[in-house]
UniProtKB/TrEMBL annotation:
Residues 65-187 form the Dienelactone hydrolase domain. Keywords: Hydrolase, Signal. It comes from Achromobacter marplatensis. Residues 1-24 form the signal peptide. GO terms for molecular function: hydrolase activity. Pfam families: DLH (PF01738). This is Dienelactone hydrolase. The keyword tRNA processing does not apply. The keyword Transmembrane does not apply. InterPro entries: AB_hydrolase_fold (IPR029058), Dienelactn_hydro (IPR002925), FrsA_esterase (IPR050261), UCP031982_abhydr (IPR016986).
């Protein structure tokens, strides 16, 4: 998909927020400057807000929320979000807002080189080691540098990850990927640089970071690079979602392999009738035709209704474990 169309998808995600929520969530833009740990990161923060909803604009796009609403007193659990390949920090905005309405602070960033604006490293193996590092930097920022850091409970941190973001969450939780076994996405897209390198045995030695601060994870349709006992060190509670129809290199069988590889049984949820991209926030009707790969819903499937169930279960899971 072209960067232009992906950009329109991100704008549609903003527009969807206005339609999906009647309660306000506080909203801030987020910028992490470049430092010795990596390049600059951009994203957003959602958090509880006591003010009534209003229309705000991000660029030229109107959304429903309260820009820079005061963060309520108290210490709030933190959930960080990791998007899928060529995605956006806005891809799961409705889930972020639902968590904010339930009392959580939520932070998400664009992964460098693997987002809708910059896909320069999308097909390279290096992205699999930098993604977890960027999430760790985000947690560092939210707990030590965000101006409202005193209102974040650093002992109650969770992560939500979708697709490659699900892979990212599993690494942070203790998973050790092994690309020698290959990736399902390489069966359909063998021309990707990482697929060529895997096939040729050119797999660089990469270190993968774990983060013991993360106490719970919700993982939706993860890209599976964890054969055998690669997930044995994942000890935190996990809610694992699988779409019934799969897509983008993820299948029900590959998610089931993750389920079987986890040392403790996860809170497993099958999204009946859903495809891979149904975990993204629902597209406005006027975008559905242009961005059909992301927006099309199978006959009889209602993404908005699915997200009501998804968001309720995600909120309940994090409340129980944070």
């Amino acid at each position: 998909m072209s960067a232009h169309l992906l950009g329109r998808f991100c704008l549609s995600a903003f527009l969807g927020l206005a339609a999906a929520h009647t309660q306000a969530a506080g909203f801030q833009r987020l910028t992490l400057p470049m430092d010795q740990n990596g390049p600059g990161l951009s994203g957003a923060i959602w958090y509880p807000c006591a003010a009534p909803a209003a229309e705000i604009k991000v660029g030229r796009t109107p959304i429903s929320g309260v820009l820079n609403c005061p963060v309520p007193e108290g210490r709030h659990p933190l959930v960080v979000m990791s998007h899928g390949s060529s995605g956006s920090f806005l891809g799961h905005h409705d889930t972020a807002a639902a968590l904010a309405n339930a009392g959580f602070v939520v932070a998400a960033v664009n992964h460098v080189g693997d987002n809708w604006e910059d896909r320069s490293r999308q097909g390279y193996l290096s992205i699999f080691s930098t993604r977890p590092r960027e999430m760790r930097r985000l947690i560092d920022y939210m707990t030590t540098a965000w101006p409202q850091k005193a209102k974040v409970d650093a002992g109650k941190i969770g992560i939500y990850g979708f697709s490659r973001g699900g892979y990212t969450a599993l690494v942070l939780a203790g998973g050790v990927p092994d690309f020698r076994a290959g990736l399902a996405v390489c069966q359909t897209t063998p021309s990707l640089p990482m697929c060529r390198d895997i096939a040729a045995g050119k797999i660089p030695q990469q270190s993968y970071v774990h983060d013991d601060r993360i106490k719970a994870a919700v993982i939706a349709d993860p890209l599976n690079a964890f054969p055998g006992d690669a997930l044995n060190a994942v000890k935190i509670p996990v809610q694992l979602w699988a779409s019934e129809r799969g897509g983008d290199g993820v299948s029900p069988a590959s998610v089931e392999a993750v389920r079987q590889g986890l040392p403790a049984a996860p809170d497993f949820q099958m999204a009946t009738g859903a495809g891979h991209f149904d975990f993204l926030a629902r597209c406005p009707a006027e975008q559905a035709e242009t961005l059909s790969v992301y927006c099309r819903e199978a006959a009889g499937f209602d993404r908005q209704q699915f997200h009501q169930d998804l968001n309720a279960k995600v909120v309940e899971f994090f409340k129980n474990h944070l």
